[in-house]
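[Discussion] Sanity-checking designs against the backbone

I'm trying to build intuition for which residues belong where. Below is a structure token string of 133 positions. I'd appreciate it if someone posts a full sequence so I can compare it with mine line by line.
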């Protein structure tokens, strides 16, 4: 089976590094964007199977990115999981109404995040117990 590609959109290098290790340990390929503008160009170029999106981004916040993804016919079917430090009380409903597959507040539980990724991708393979390389 080909490795599924996930676009990580976050301006925090430590978070990107940690997600990269966890996702690669679970047989995913990863690509990155650090702002809203780059997120859209990377989505067009890389055609990821899933996007993990922060809301607090420079050059177009995550809401703008989510809206643009939904409006682009060739990108609107890519599942988006929002991973943000913003308050879930005021953001969860808006994010899910905007088309996100799932909402997580940072720091997210690794097992829950992986389960949401598998669910959004329709993956049936079991979660890997492999340690990051």
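Best answer:
Here's mine. Compare freely.
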């Amino acid at each position: 089976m080909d490795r599924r590609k996930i676009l990580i959109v976050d301006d925090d290098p430590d978070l990107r590094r940690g997600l990269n290790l966890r996702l690669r340990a679970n047989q995913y390929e990863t690509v990155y964007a650090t702002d809203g503008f780059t997120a859209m160009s990377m989505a067009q170029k890389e055609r990821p199977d899933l996007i993990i999106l922060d809301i607090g981004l420079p050059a177009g916040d995550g809401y703008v990115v989510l809206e643009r993804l939904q409006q682009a016919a060739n990108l609107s079917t890519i599942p988006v999981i929002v991973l943000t430090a913003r308050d879930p009380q005021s953001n969860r409903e808006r994010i899910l109404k905007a088309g996100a597959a799932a909402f997580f507040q940072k720091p997210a539980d690794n097992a829950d995040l992986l389960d949401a990724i598998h669910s959004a991708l329709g993956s049936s393979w079991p979660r890997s117990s492999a340690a990051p390389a």
